[in-house]
Amino acid sequence: MTDDVDHELDLKGLKCPLPVLKARKAMTAMRPGARVRILSTDPMSVIDIPHFCQEAGHRLLSRETGADEVHVFTLERG
Question: What angle separates helix 45-56 from helix 18-28, to the nearest 10 degrees?
């Protein structure tokens, strides 16, 4: 996991569609090129977050799933 992020969103415990909605709201306020790390326990986030990036023009830089089933995404605002 890289440490070169501008913001981190801890969205653990939230269920679909809240992780994407909160990510969208946070990224709207960020400058283009800014990076955010998102932590989510929602199993659907592995589908929803990449789809959100594709639709909104953001870059999915990395996606990892830890042993504790926490999905960690690093996104760059488009």
Answer: 30
